[in-house]
Amino acid sequence: MFLGNQHFVESMQCLLNAEQGLSEIPGAQRRGIVKPLSEYAEKYIRNEAIANAYAIGGV
Predict the structure, then answer these.
(1) Torsions phi, psi for 53 (to 5 deg)
(2) 35/39 Cα distance (integer angstroms)
(3) Where do the H-state alpha helices sit in 1-59?
(4) Alpha carbons 25 and 36: distance in angstroms, whole number
(5) Confidence band (pLDDT; 50, 70, 90) for 46?
(6) Which residue has the higher pLDDT, 51 or 25?
(7) DSSP one-letter string for 6-19
(8) How does DSSP classify residue 57?
(9) What CA–CA distance (Å, rounded) separates 8 from 47?
(10) Contact indicator for 37, 49 with CB cutoff of 8 Å
(11) Which one, of 33, 53, 34, 35, lies nearest residue 44 by Cα?
């Protein structure tokens, strides 16, 4: 997906190889919604909450 006027979009589409896809999505956009740290703190004791938040990507 390109954002811009028609001329810009057409010029960018010409640069793409016909076989090349736009499947490369930045990691920040692929990640799911992150739980707040307070949710981990409610479920686990302090050290377990920290470890789980880090392992799951909650921080």
Answers:
(1) -60, -40
(2) 7
(3) 6-15, 27-30, 37-43, 46-56
(4) 24
(5) very high
(6) 51
(7) HHHHHHHHHHS-TT
(8) T
(9) 52
(10) yes
(11) 53
